[in-house]
Amino acid sequence: MPSPHTHGHDVGERLFVHRHSVIHRLPAEVKTVAMVAFIFTVIMTPPNQFWAFALYALILVGVAVLARIPARVILPRMLVEVPFVLFALLMPFFGTGPTVEVLGLTLSQAGLLAGWGILVKGTLGVVSSILLAATTPARDLLMGLERLKVPELLVQIANFMLRYIHVVSDEMHRMKLARESRGFTATGIRSWPIIAQSGGALFIRSYERGERVHLAMLSRGYTGRLPQLATVTTTAGDWFTAMSLPVVGLLIALTALWIGR
Amino acid sequence: MTPSLRISGLAFAYPDGYQALFGVNLEIAKGERVALLGPNGAGKTTLVLHLNGLLAGGVGSVEVAGLAVEKQNFPEIRRRVGVVFQDPDDQLFMPTVRDDVAFGPANMGLTGADLATRVDEALEQVAMSEYGDRPPHHLSFGQRRRVAVATVLAMHPEILVLDEPSSNLDPASRRELADILRDLDITLFMVTHDLPYALELCPRSVVLSEGVVVADGPTRNILLNDELMRANRLELPYGFDPRNVPA
User: Fold this and answer.
1) The CATH number of the domain where B10 resides is what?
2) Which of A22, A211, A246, B237 could bond to A38 as cystine, CB 3.0-4.6 Å?
């Protein structure tokens, strides 16, 4: 059990918000499955059943309250969604079929509904993943994926990314300092080749580091598998608690489908 | 008694034709501490990579506590030979210190309480017990070097091989590491350019030059042999005189 106050605040760990809550205590793989299942129930809900989405949102607010994750943590993180929102906002202008007039603009009804669907489902999905990341340390998340039988190679790659992102970004920073110490300033398109060359050099250095890391791994008996180090016991109670989320979601989705049939 | 390490007639050329080793002979008794000295390009790293079979395919043989370094023995050889590489960021690749120290023994098949004991012991040997749950990038360079030593100590090796253990350390970290290494009850083979460090830790030194052993004897004698030192681009730091160091 990691001591509570040694968690880092950098790339690998900065999404995690340290709290003691039911949600934090659940094993990572249980939470992951529950979240993915919940997102599926949201996706299968017809966009015209507005009440259903209000309920979903309410459920997520409930999870956030249980996990003691404040809105000021969640809202800024929702910015990752912005590019998709822009796409959703364009839909009403390009839809076909019956149209409506809104403030002098002719909008497609089908497009409007489709845009709304993308926006609301996307937002609920993003908030779910924010909650998962805020309540589960990145390392546990990866070990959870391993226990869920996600291909081991993918999990290993993600593990190494988490470990080496600092090493590589430090190296990148040192190269930037070295460039600037010799009078280089990034000014428009003419400095691009220099930056591209630095990128290439960084790639080669990282590749060589990869080889050295591999030697170090072989030296300690690596045979292609990372040892399973944490023993996590998942109880039926954990699954019951976590799966209540998608089960309620499923009930809402089925009701919405039945009403909208 | 079987020596910890026996190298006979080891020669090796890289696939591009560059020959790095030309018949190296070396024997290290159990519990001995030996420094490997030599200029850049002498073949020191190449030699180290042969000790646990990361490089092979030349002529000659390497034996660790009587066991030949050959493919069918690799799992046991890699347990017996603990190599600490120069850059701790290469050595520490797991998300936390504890996971990293557990990597070797877990590959050997240890689990549960046995594994936890191994990890605790190894971290204690390098005075890093409090840092088990930290990610490696939150440690100072000296602390990372010490954890790197712990990662191989946890495998209970026959011989500890260190590549430039004092490089990039500040003087206090360098001394702390020396204190730790001196207290270990283990055969030690240390590649270094840091001659005072060799004198401090290793009673015996071996000089490798152009792929052959050109000298092998008490460290003090080697450092005092001006002719040998000059011929092999070895130099003592300014003002350092081995005669002033108590034996």
Assistant:
1) 3.40.50.300
2) A246
